[in-house]
Write a structure and sequence with these properties.
Layout: H1 3-6, H2 20-49, H3 61-75, H4 102-119, H5 124-127, E1 129-134, E2 137-142, H6 151-176
Antiparallel strand pairs: 1-2
Helix pairs in contact: 2-3, 2-6, 3-4, 4-6
Length: 185
């Protein structure tokens, strides 16, 4: 049995053309809430596991994977996706960031830039890599900027997510005043 057959027969209401921008924005905000919940859950898991940050050796693959998951989930709502979507806006409005302090805004920008330069694209400039070539191979000095976050940074990320959640909820509440209620759209 597939998921479609498990759903009741739904009649999807057609939203008038003048409300399509609000509907697209609402859908983007809905998706952003899911992404931020994933980021929050990852932070909560990192904090509860108390995985040690190694001083002399590389972090464990699990810690690096969770750090990557956190950065990707957090940044997803703020990155303009490629292509054209008729379903939802590409990213959340920047106005949602207005409630952040300058320090929180710096953290937000750091996470989005980390996603863009290292996590999603392996930007060689961000990686600070020097190569030495030999006839039979190569060697490298490599500084990876994607290191796990200390507990204080994880706590700060949770605070930013909480503020963004509040802004998202308020914007959704405002949009519900304009969009049709109690129908599938």
């Amino acid at each position: 049995m597939n998921e479609q057959s498990a759903l009741p027969d739904l009649v999807t209401m057609q939203v008038p053309p003048e409300l399509q921008p609000q509907l697209r924005l609402y859908r983007r905000l809905y998706l952003a809430r899911i992404d931020l919940e994933e980021a929050r859950a990852t932070v909560d898991d990192l904090l509860s596991r108390r995985i040690a940050l190694p001083r002399r050796k590389l972090p464990s693959p699990l810690l690096l994977a969770m750090t990557t998951a956190l950065v990707v989930a957090y940044a997803r709502p703020f990155v303009h996706s490629r292509g054209h979507s008729v379903v939802a806006d590409k990213s959340v409005p920047g106005a949602l960031l207005r409630g952040l302090t300058s320090k929180e805004r710096e953290l937000h920008e750091y996470l989005v830039n980390l996603r863009n330069k290292e996590v999603a694209h392996s930007d060689a400039d961000a990686l600070e890599m020097s190569l030495k070539l030999y006839a039979d191979g190569d060697g490298a000095i490599f500084r990876n900027t994607r290191s796990p976050f200390p507990r204080s940074a994880l706590t700060a990320i949770l605070q930013v997510i909480a503020k963004l959640d509040k802004a998202l909820d308020q914007k959704c509440q405002d949009l519900r005043q304009e969009l049709p209620l109690e129908v599938w759209i």
